[in-house]
Specification:
The structure is a homodimer of 456-residue chains. Chain A is of the alpha/beta class and 456 residues long. Chain A has a domain of 265 residues: Rossmann fold. Chain A is 41% helix and 16% strand. The first copy, chain A, contains 19 helices and 15 strands. In chain A, the strands form four sheets. In chain A, strands 1-4-5-15-10-11-14 form a seven-stranded mixed β-sheet, sandwiched between helices. Chain A has a four-stranded parallel β-sheet with strand order 8-7-6-9, with helices on both faces. Chain A has a two-stranded antiparallel sheet with strand order 2-3. In chain A, helix 3 runs antiparallel to helix 5. At the A-B interface, helix 6, helix 8, helix 16 and helix 18 of A face helix 6, helix 8, helix 16 and helix 18 of B.
């Protein structure tokens, strides 16, 4: 009998708490500057967020408890796909001819195919607990929108998804998935909101943008007492919910007596799957385990961690959200249309940004074609077709493994395969046809956007 | 801690042998008539199949050994996704308000998203062992073609897939998946074969059919010494490979001390996922376990088991294959364009047909809209979006569960969710729009085709 391929954690050994990085920031020597009011530029209190989020989530946003219990109804839903498998990439290691040991956590087994339900489920749960009837959100390619649609359905909430119109029209499958789970999907800009009507008045043919969709979703939440808003990344409470990923990995590695990882690799867009992967390794080091190198891989087209400024900026394009101190390319910078739609964001989670500033994590950026090459190499050996976003982590792990081939070191590499590519096959088609465009660091556009950072 | 949601079998407890129904046919009182030569109408020997299949598979086709060992290299690949999870449908049971206990085996976790790799992997393995360089096959919607592409890649074989032209053009995503795994995908009819050229000479605009694609794939295999052909259902050795499904289920039910199932439900097209599910339950009954009701669910548009004749007929439209005694709608009957492409076949596996004749299994047929209703009900409760084909089993399980609601009986129901619906969202779109056409039993067309059955 060969060494295990899939390391499976039983449901009774699943983590029962989320790990809250905020509790450990002082010990890590990390300072997390507070969010500021977009008008007054003064630090905001939790009450400012009350029109948008239920109190339980706002409390999690500012909590300094180290572990926060996962409610049993949330754990019950998690069991539909969690604990997720940790794979030892035996076949890919042989294909890469590397002495490295590669493990990958596979979050694509969730109903919507990514890590996003780890947070959409508790967000829907807490909203339902506090009497919310409806949740609004925005979605681009549809990963987050489908995860929230799934979660709302489970807790009897209406879900209203403002979907960027060009995606609504060109990529109907994610929309259909959301509708199958009962969500109402609205092409944005829409005539239902002030923000949407303003855009349509200027340009009736507008194909929309994530910034506009956010404005519409927020407006609809603020207007109605029974309606709240939900976000799929960036905020502390969202990252908190993802920490089950890394906690499960540590238990799974312990289960087989594996070496402690030398390097852990995640892709970064807003930072949530990355945080979920790596925060528990930071905690474990504080608790006496060896230090692990932590590597973030981001797209060259939206390189906030590697090329952005660490500054106060808005979370949305229109400048309606609180100001957050983060790595940013400027809130009006619109990344090139790469196929990793989930990573096309101008900013980075404040927590992840602060870790980067403190030197606790490394970051690199990479263009599209190497990502798809890495994904195809992986799919040919391991079977699973990764999402382009997840491919950034695949590429990072492959680079580390190939370095080991050169050096002869048998390092232990762990990465998070945060989603499958079943809805990204048109991107693979373009790649196989050699038609995938490369977008390098757009220096001048970033400079222009950074010049318009808000003065604080 | 609630009762388990996912019952996971560890890799070390995975079945090491396939179960061969042929060994038990005498004890079951079932006679399996031999295949006949299409020309002479005389029983054919294994050597007749040698141009198409490697000897190891031909031996399995006629073997009467009860258990056949799964080669270690095949087991190693199986571990990429096997053992697959068995789920207890807690949430769906509550949604249906039924006292029944519903379990579903989920085969959609395989790299290509269905049960098909259970047989494509050993087929590719045995071909590689015997020096085959290339495997040809046909595919309609692409489930089988993608499973074989994946398997060929793993064992260093070229894969040539003749894909029905209308699907090649209208459903590019499965094609891209095959190409990502390295397969050559050729729209059929093609100019590369005699069969293709003949069709194109008659009709240069032909959109193809599964029958034509089979003819092309078989022709290309017969012509070249280094090339064999592979089939994704119907034949004994294909069904044999699927028996790991039912064997795993029995182990998983034993693991939690579950009641022995009252009824086991599978969908039927050619019969392979159904056989893989139910054969081990037939074997277990012979070995002293209680009898289980076995229910096949097929589409009303292609109701071979419920409305076909039990007669000798060709496996393909053109009449080139050996004659097999099976439930058939006539080899030139072309089923209506239902979205369950994997079930659009005129015949039924000879083994499954013989079981039906012997009264060991039941069968029902159902139209499209009830299938999609059942699938949506399931997806809203359990998260997973089933393939339309798999939906026939979902519908069957739901019907049984609703009967239990009426009677108050807490029966144990097991079904096989043989694939996910990620590549079927255009079908869901049509369903949600109320645009899904119903196709009832096409009595006159079936009668006309049956009138053309070959005389034996």
């Amino acid at each position: 009998m060969a060494e295990l391929t899939k390391i499976i954690l039983s449901e009774k050994d699943a983590p029962t708490h989320w790990y809250n990085l905020n509790a450990d920031l002082p010990r890590l020597g990390v300072e997390l500057p507070p969010p500021l009011h977009p008008g007054t530029k003064q630090p905001i209190g939790p009450e400012t967020l009350a029109p948008l989020f239920p109190m339980a989530l706002i409390e999690q946003e500012v909590s300094t408890e180290r572990y926060i219990e996962i409610p049993e109804p949330v754990q019950e839903v998690y069991r539909l796909w969690r604990p997720t498998p940790l794979f030892r990439a035996h076949r890919w290691e042989r294909a890469l001819d590397t002495p490295a040991k590669i493990y990958y956590k596979y979050e694509g087994v969730s109903p919507s195919g990514s890590h996003k339900p780890n947070t959409s489920v508790p967000q829907a749960y807490y909203n339902a607990q506090e009497g919310t009837k409806r949740i609004t959100t925005e979605t681009g390619a549809g990963q987050w929108g489908s995860a929230l649609s799934f979660a709302c359905q489970l807790f009897g909430l209406d879900c209203e998804v403002y979907m960027v119109k060009v995606s609504y029209e060109q990529k109907p499958y994610r929309r259909v998935l959301m509708q199958t789970w009962g969500a109402r999907v609205i092409p944005s800009p829409s005539p239902h909101t002030e923000a949407g009507r303003r855009i349509l008045a200027q340009d009736p043919e507008s194909t929309g943008s994530l910034g506009i969709a956010i404005s519409e979703a927020v407006e609809m939440a603020v207007q109605r007492d029974d309606t709240k808003y939900a976000l799929g990344s960036v905020l502390n409470h969202v990252l908190l919910h993802q920490t089950i990923i890394g906690q499960e990995i540590i238990k799974q590695l312990e289960l087989i007596g594996a070496d402690w990882p030398d390097v852990v690799v995640g892709c970064t867009g807003g930072g949530s799957n990355f945080a979920g992967l790596v925060y528990p390794f930071l905690a474990a080091h504080l608790d006496g385990r060896p230090q692990t190198r932590i590597l973030a891989v981001e797209p060259s087209a939206a390189p906030s961690l590697t090329r952005g400024s660490y500054a106060y900026d808005f979370g949305d394009t229109a400048g309606m959200t609180p100001l957050m101190k983060m790595h940013t390319l400027g809130h009006d910078f619109v990344p090139a249309p790469i196929h990793s739609g989930g990573l096309r964001y101008h900013g980075m989670s404040p927590q992840v940004s602060a870790l980067k500033e403190a030197g606790l994590i490394e970051a690199v950026s990479v263009t599209q074609n190497p990502i798809f090459e890495a994904n195809q190499s992986f799919a040919k050996a391991e079977g699973i077709l990764p999402a382009p976003e997840a491919g950034h982590a695949v590429w990072g792990a492959m680079s580390e493994a190939l370095t080991c081939r050169e050096s002869g070191e048998a390092k232990t590499i762990v990465f998070n395969l945060c989603g499958h590519g079943h809805f990204d096959l048109s991107a693979y088609d373009a790649y196989l046809a050699g038609a995938l465009q490369e977008y390098e660091y757009p220096a001048e556009r970033v400079q222009a956007s950074l010049a318009r950072l808000p003065q604080v």
